[in-house]
Amino acid sequence: MAGRSRGPRTVKLPSAAEADALLRRMRGEVENNSNYRTKSLKIHGPVCARCGRQFDAASINQLTVHHRDGNHHNNPPDGSNWENLCNHCHDDEHSRGLLGDYLESAEKPHTR
Ligand SMILES: [Zn+2]
Ligand SMILES: [Zn+2]
């Protein structure tokens, strides 16, 4: 008579819950990344903060959301780290001094 069974050995498989969590995390990051643009446009409007150029549905892809502190992961929901800049002003912003160098290396791994 076996007093106590050893029971089945628990094999660690990637459970559905784990896969789901991973998926949710990935999805969350993707959402965050594309969402800040939408949010910034909503908060600051489809206008370049520098030159005041206005954008419509056809030209909105020329408007870039710039991170004031250069940290793309700093996306406060109140939009305080975002600035909507047209391609021209955004380029300009990134080509000046220390900030430009920092952002250039943060956004693009290669230098032009
Ligand atoms: Zn501009
Ligand atoms: Zn930028």
TrEMBL record:
Q: Per its UniProt record, what InterPro entries does this chain match? A: HNH (IPR002711), HNH_nuc (IPR003615)
The record's Gene Ontology cellular component field reads:
cytosol
Q: Which residues form the HNH nuclease domain?
A: 35-91
Give the keywords, sorted. Answer: Endonuclease, Hydrolase, Nuclease
- Which GO molecular function terms does the record list? endonuclease activity; hydrolase activity; nucleic acid binding; zinc ion binding
Which protein family is named in the record?
Belongs to the HNH nuclease family.
Q: What is this protein called?
A: Putative HNH nuclease YajD
